[in-house]
Design brief:
heterodimer; A: 305 residues; mainly alpha; B: 236 residues; disordered N terminus; transmembrane helix (chain B); Yip1_dom (chain B); Yip1/4-like (chain B); Protein YIPF (chain B); transmembrane (chain B)
Chain lengths: 305, 236
Amino acid sequence: MAAVDDLQFEEFGDAATSPAANPGATTIHIEGPSESPTHQPGLPRGSGGEEDDELLGNDDSDKTELLAGQKKSSPFWTFEYYQTFFDVDTYQVFDRIKGSLLPIPGKNFVRLYIRSNPDLYGPFWICATLVFAIAISGNLSNFLIHLGEKTYHYVPEFRKVSIAATIIYAYAWLVPLALWGFLMWRNSKVMNIVSYSFLEIVCVYGYSLFIYIPTAVLWVIPQKAVRWILVMIALGISGSVLAMTFWPAVREDNRRIALATIVTIVLLHTLLSVGCLAYFFDAPEMDHHLPATTAAPNQTAAAAK
Amino acid sequence: MAKAAESSGDPGTTIPRPLFAGLSDISISQDIPVEGEITIPMRSQIREFDSSTLNESVQNTIMRDLKAVGKKFMHVLYPRKSNTLLRDWDLWGPLILCVTLALMLQRSSVDSEKDGGPQFAEVFVIVWFGAVTITLNSKLLGGNISFFQSLCVLGYCILPLTVAMLVCRLVLLAEPGPVNFMVRLFVVIVMFAWSIVASTAFLADSQPPNRKALAIYPVFLFYFVISWMILTFTPQ
């Protein structure tokens, strides 16, 4: 048995090896990762330096670039490949929806919420809910508008569900495809700092459509003014989310092309909402509406004279 | 064992004896049998079972499947957390329910030009493709339920809504009016809630805990759409 003293560790106090006490000894000093922005030499410092940092999420853009390369390593014919697109938790989906409802000027939706983890759950199920919300509330609104008419026979209008599905899914997938192709083409001509992958663009478009779900439900109210105010509000919110997301991607480009891109994005969004309102919801005509049943005798008597 | 018990039976001792201390003192006496026969009693029965399902009458076969389907119907009507639906899944019940629902929901061919309710094929496609999509969604989110088990549960939980359809059809034979509509609305809402509760009781455990809401929401949407189709059914 060895003596207990031999098993004692030798204590190396700080005083023994500090550079002051032992100037001849070599010491190794290891630094942690530095937080100063000077470690990223490739970024130009423009006049909107602060904005750039926030929009690009510079505090961990290094990490996100690293992580982006490590995902999606399975080949595309395995089930695990598609599972990486559904790698979100409940609170993450809620956060992304909240981010699409409250666009904060200066905060980029993709950098803030998606962070190289684009998911397909949100876009797919938000579009599915929107399809049924538009079809059902359109049907309900038509029923309420034509309620008192004698010649009106209620039909469920089931055909409109498939039309709504075609429109919404085409918008949510083809417009991002076109936008992604356009950004790639401009990227080859002008060196852009920010470029989004196709799935991130699909994600932004999918989550930006969320505001239309409560809007479609509220469109049941058969007042023209109410409906147009709702269109304005929804367009303002989702349009600003899209504009703030894509502005950093086109800002470095020719001024006119950048503006044209943003205007086209917002215009297509407007076209979708106004088109849905016009096609699925009949115009409320005030003649057949509620006043006809309450004050009808006087008015019809007066009109008949 | 008796010897060990005697030696430790002294009431005054406080020294704890180690475990199995008296084991070495035991000798096996002649009256503890350690020999016997090893037979497999099931073997002859299995052979009989195989030939019996091949030679049994058609009525027996059908009744056995119908009984299994009926047992699962009972599990849906009184949902408890049990594994019966998941363990022995079958797709007969969902098929019967889907065909019944689609037959009752289809519009008559007279007004096929006007934009009316869904056709048989549309209902069928919505039910089956909806169930497949929900199953794929739950598997992609990381749930550990098999494909057909999930289809089985979703199909069987349409039973309350099929009952609602039957009740609505009966109620629609009476004169139309707001009371008629209120009764149908109430029945459909109750059956919709029943379907959701039943399917959640069976499916919720197989999802990862932080994604339960993500997996349950499509089920809610699916049954909501079917309830809407039932509620808006108008006979010609």
